Amino acid sequence: MFTGIDEVDWASLRHAHGSAEDVPGWLRALASADTAERATALDGMYGAVHHQGRVYDSTLACVPFLFAMLAREEVQDRGSIVELLVSIGGESFGTGGNPGVPEGLTGDGRARAAVSAGAEAFAELPGDPDPAVRRAAAGALVRFLEEPPRVLELLRRRLRAERDDCVLLALTEALGLFARRYPAHAEGALDLLAEQSAPPYAPGLRLAALGQLALRAPGRLPADLVPAAVRLLRQRSEQRLRQQEHSTTDTLVRRIRRLRPSDEQGAVLLRTLHSALGDRVEDRIALLTGQLTSPDPVDRCNAVWMSAGLLRGWRGAYAGTVRLLGAQLDSEQERLRDAAVSVLAELFDLAAPAADDLHALVSARPDLWTHRWERCPPALGGPLKALARTGDPRAVPPLAQLLAGPAAPVGLGGEVAHLGRAAAALAPALRHRLGRVPLASPTAARLAAPLLTAIRAVGDEDAVPELLRLLSGAPDGLGAREAVAGQVIETLAELGAAAPAAPLLRMLLRTRHAATAAGALWSADGDTAAVLPVLLRELEQPDPDARRTAVRQLARLGPAARAALPGLLRLAGRGPVRERVPAAYALWRIDGDPGPVLPVFRTAWTADPRTRVPLARCLTALGPAAAPLRDLVAAELACPRRHTADEGTYGERGIPDDEELLRMCRGLPAGG
């Protein structure tokens, strides 16, 4: 099994953490009779030799010895060895050791070639006594044994003989993979999947087959796909619950599962089906309705998380789905309730159909108003946060209680802002907390920023003394003034209260807040001559933030800022589209000519979806002059995919930003 292992110069080979001289020990330990030794060795292989999917020279050197272990039935956990080989051969990451190949990428497919060279070993495993080996071997056969007819026959035979449900599911996934990998031979695999999707096969296997058919051959699906899938899900759940009830062995694992019930296999089955349905949003909503009304809370919990994926990625009529999410809040299953709260908090005002359920939970459970992590300040609890984000005024009384307490959550003000003027009753408490922000503290910005957001939202003009205190800053010029001056100035301007701050604003005209201060001064007295030179200077700054702020303030000045046209033309014609858009809008506000503006808007709309919300605001302001871009609006309204579907870019603002875009587009004339 390990013949030749000591002849390899492991010390000269490398893995993620340096020399590979420890690799022979891990390989031998993988064949150990001791469970702990095997687990430690597998951790070492994934943590160093195949770290984060990368392939090193030591990884390639391991492949023959891993295959040798597969041939020995006395070696335990061979299913894990098959999975490791599949991962090594299937990844496209490497050490970048070849000239001209970037770090982290393989240029020659050596890893795949090494595993494919030993793939005949996988053909011996479908009948292995160990079900874990049979399960892992199903996908390995399809991926690495380059003989499609033979692979299909091996899968067919195993499917007829197999009795283990987990292996049957793996075989089903392997058939779907086969159909994708070998289109010319797919018909036989699809026939087997169609056969598995009907009686007498078990409900779980039928669901799995339907999911693979939906992915690979939608035309072979039954007409009543969604009702059939819901029936199968419930039959499977009943079967699973009966098996749990009839189990006579009470182990620690079983007790843990009773406390925190889960069904990852069921989640995978339904996720596959949802993925296959793709943009068939109405069908997916109907499927979720069946899941969310299941008698089994575990099915409902899986459905809650799947609804998050649908809501984040696709536009649709979700009022019914949201009401069903709200219905999960009175569940005795803490895991289900918390999942529903988490999803509802992402929806903002789209969660309004669940507001009654959120309010009921907030009223019944004051202990959930805040959430605490060890050694961290309290955060606003999920139920109250979700209720506030719907804009429901019933969130105001509990928020008032928290503001009156000794340790209100730091970010509370940011959530108050979603209530707007409905939260006016909170203004005195917000002012009080703003007045207690320590001016010289490094925490000043963290404490003040959400309070300033709330004060702007509720329109509290009585907060001017507290705002001036923050703007004056600490005696050494650091602290609050430096950290939050921009927000304070914008708040004063938005409240129409910049005049009392004029002396302080003039002091800031030579700081990094110069453009914001100049804009506020202009809003107070309209003296263009005093502020235009400052804005022109800031327009030429190398700091993009300074330029963007100057552009925004120049747009407010309108025709009085004509001296800025050459600089704005330069900005609108080059650089990132997120800088070009506000510069183009400022051009229109100052000059009134849509000619140079509309091409910038069209380019930005297509090139960077993140610009679409501000662009829609610009189009609204342009009015009839935006007519040549109406085709963009029509296409946006017809698109079922959210423009914020890339969650990594948008975070939790994805859904509300997309809903805002849709609202603005609906308010614009679409067509020709």
Describe this structure in words.
The structure is a single chain. This protein is an all-alpha fold and 672 residues long. It has a domain at 5-220: Leucine-rich Repeat Variant, CATH 1.25.10. Helix content is 62%, strand content 1%. It has helices at 23-30, 35-49, 57-70, 78-90, 110-117, 131-144, 148-161, 165-181, 186-196, 203-216, 225-245, 252-259, 264-277, 281-292, 297-313, 319-327, 334-345, 355-364, 382-389, 396-404, 412-416, 427-435, 444-458, 464-472, 480-494, 502-507, 514-525, 528-539, 544-557, 565-573, 577-591, 598-607, 612-622, 630-638, 647-650, 654-666; strands at residues 14-15, 18-19, 370-371, 379-380. It has a two-stranded antiparallel ribbon. Strand 3 and strand 4 form a beta hairpin. The protein is elongated, with a radius of gyration of 31 Å. 44% of the residues are buried.
